[in-house]
Amino acid sequence: xxxxxxxxxxxxxxxxxxxxxxxxxxxxxxxxxxxxxxxxxxxxxxxxxxxxxxxxxxxxxxxxxxxxxxxxxxxxxxxxxxxxxxxxxxxxxxxxxxxxxxxxxxxxxxxxxxxxxxxxxxxxxxxxxxxxxxxxxxxxxxxxxxxxxxxxxxxxxxxxxxxxxxxxxxxxxxxxxxxxxxxxxxxxxxxxxxxxxxxxxxxxxxxxxxxxxxxxxxxxxxxxxxxxxxxxxxxxxxxxxxxxxxxxxxxxxxxxxxxxxxxxxxxxxxxxxxxxxxxxxxxxxx
Length: 286
Description:
Elements: H1 3-24, H2 28-53, H3 63-74, E1 83-84, H4 94-104, H5 116-127, H6 138-147, H7 154-170, H8 173-183, E2 185-187, E3 190-191, H9 193-201, H10 210-219, H11 233-249, H12 263-266, H13 271-285
Parallel strand pairs: 1-3
Antiparallel strand pairs: 2-3
Helix pairs in contact: 2-7, 4-10, 4-11, 6-7, 6-8, 10-11
């Protein structure tokens, strides 16, 4: 071995040996400070990469699927069931898209992920001590189902808003609707419209009738209690309402551009507008 090679190897060993003592010599408070920005940065990067990946890759599982499966395993007299199959939005009856928009989120094609008008109304009703009405959009429900466990807390709502904005930016309306209809819960262990169509009607999602699509849409707010296979009188009335409302809305074009939309609803406020309004309300309350 030549002298130059020996020097190179010795130099590498010296450099390798300096790194660890350098970290050990850092005071504890400085290590903590580093972790305080490195960990959040790593989590942010991971969340961003996951959202971008799901732009093209279907989520194999969701936190709710895991949560429900654990409940089935450890609760007595509860059968273990898992039905799920991803399909493209083109292979889903347009009646299903029309009905979930009519039932869950009439401004889906117009808002930026959040129904700001409803959020303001919920805030005012909460101040008056009234029951808070749901203002969750399809985008928010998608973010919650794909990325977060079903647990009520202010922190979870904040993270839900973060993911909602990300999927609005990176996915677009068509992909949001596709993922939503593939992961949403339609019964105990039944996820996605394809599995629900085959479970309740013995047909593919592409073959759903208008009435069947309306029934599935009506079950969404409470899928463990509302069973399309055993509809109550309220369920039937609600189904008729959603059918009629979806006819009024017409066929939803998930690829519509802004200029194609109704000018009356085109200019919706975004989450920044709501935060500004919220801060003004807080100042006026003091």
